[in-house]
């Protein structure tokens, strides 16, 4: 079983948000607790055990030095963000032979009349495709979406239930979710480090697509753009785009030694 911890960033009602972003990290069930331990260990290394227990990881406060992060210097905060994002990119759980799988959808505000629902739909279809590809390779895993409590909770639960149904209605997307085992589970991000890291991933890409700040997002480039297995989707309006998702030349390939090159 894989758990996809997801979050969203952006508000389509805010004219300053050119795009909204939905994304998350998928983690093998056996790797959930070990990865949470690695996250806590990384926090402890940067800010000490006491502060690590007190603070939540959220992208915006961490970047801007707000809330509990006020008294921690910018260099340390940004170093911590990159270290946590490198865990998403590089960490491997030996027991399950699994790695963290990030998935991100950015959607321009003029692409859809219901951008959050559209973005979550594409996110789940990417996750479902990953699981079904694994089944074809002999890894028969199902998945579950774990989402932060939000205004979209009821709509998202209903959408997933319909998309999992065997029979499609004429007005529905013809695609179906085959590998999701259950409707979404909604949790308070305070209770799980993996949800907090999903928030960090989404914030990194939100900054990239809204203000052109790719510094945090670049740390995720290898995991998001491996050639032939992309995990970043950008749903554009009418303007041309050359971002990591839209320009195939940005893909990362892996050589025989397992080293990623652009």
Q: What does this 3D model show about the protein?
A:
The chain has helices at 32-47, 49-54, 59-64, 74-90, 115-136, 153-164, 193-211, 215-218, 221-224, and strands spanning 2-9, 19-28, 92-93, 98-99, 101-108, 143-148, 185-187, 232-235, 253-254, 260-261. The chain is α/β, with parallel strands linked by helices. It has one domain (2-261): Nucleotidyltransferase, domain 5 (2-Layer Sandwich).
Q: How are the secondary structure elements laid out?
A:
Layout: E1 2-9, E2 19-28, H1 32-47, H2 49-54, H3 59-64, H4 74-90, E3 92-93, E4 98-99, E5 101-108, H5 115-136, E6 143-148, H6 153-164, E7 185-187, H7 193-211, H8 215-218, H9 221-224, E8 232-235, E9 253-254, E10 260-261
Parallel strand pairs: 1-6, 5-8, 6-7
Antiparallel strand pairs: 1-2, 2-5, 3-4, 9-10
Keywords:
single chain, 262 residues, alpha/beta, 6-stranded mixed sheet, two-stranded antiparallel ribbon, 9 helices, 40% helix, globular, disordered C terminus
Concise overview:
This protein is 40% helix and 18% strand.
Silhouette: globular
According to CATH, what is the topology?
Nucleotidyltransferase, domain 5
Q: What is the C-alpha radius of gyration, as a whole number of Å? A: 18 Å
Task: Briefly note the structural class of the backbone.
Answer: alpha/beta
The H/E string reads: EEHHHHEEEHEHEHHHEEE
Enumerate the strands of the largest sheet in spatial order, edge to edge or round the barrel: 7-6-1-2-5-8
Mean pLDDT: 86
Spans where pLDDT lies below 50 across 5 or more residues: 251-262
Proportion in helices: 40-55%
Proper CATH architecture: 2-Layer Sandwich
State the separation between the terminal residues, measured CA to CA.
32 Å
The tally of strands reads 10
